[in-house]
Amino acid sequence: MSDQIINRVANSALQVIDLEELYQEGRRTLLSITAFLDDGIVLREQTFRQRLQSHDWNIYRDQFVALHCPDDVLVPQWATLLVVTHLQPMARYVVVGTAADLEQQLFTEQLALMDFTPYQDGLVMIKGCSNKPVPEQALGMLAAKLTPIVKKLSFGEACSSVPLYKKP
Fold it and tell me: What is the pLDDT of residues 9-53, one digit of tens each?
């Protein structure tokens, strides 16, 4: 009898996809449009434009920015677009929405670039634990892309995975 430990997972045909690997490193900033409004709720065009002109946009250099407008604040669509035109030259990426919308969009773009051919007819597991935020929407998108092509799909860790799909 041998005392050698054998890693059966490493020797198996199981392919593990870790969405954490698609996480784009960089500072995230949530910017509220209310910062440029009178009393945080009223848009007066001239004052709004002046505040945008005098704002230091360099502070967003190379950042991922979510431009947010709270539900209880009504601004015309052009106002949000105007803020985006100021952010875009500085920021690495701009999304109109929440911080969660930003993460979802970043993962959506990464998944669109992913080559799924290596998983054709494979035994695939979507890794469950991660140290970085992985939106549930990204997990759902990945499962939707894999289901038509894999032989088996599971979720979790090699030691305790949950079966999701098996080709009939």
Answer: 454 799 999 999 999 999 999 999 999 999 999 999 999 999 999
Measure the CA–CA gap between 135 and 23, rounded to whole angstroms. Answer: 10
Residues 18 and 51 in one domain: no
Does residue 3 sit within a domain? no
Q: CB count, 10 Å around CB of 19?
A: 21
For the chain, the first-to-last Cα distance in angstroms comes to 39
CB 125 within 8 A of CB 154: yes
Structure tokens of 168? 């009939």
Query: How confident is the model at residue 7, as a pLDDT?
Result: 47
Contacts (Cβ under 8 Å, ≥6 apart) of 116: 145, 146, 149
Assess contact for 51 and 32: CB atoms under 8 A. no
Q: Is residue 35 part of a domain?
A: yes
Beta bridge partners of 152: 123, 166
> Does 6 map to a domain?
no
Q: Is residue 71 part of a domain?
A: yes
3-state secondary structure string across 35-76: HHCECCCECCHHHHHHHHHHCCHHHHCCCEEEEECCCCCCCC
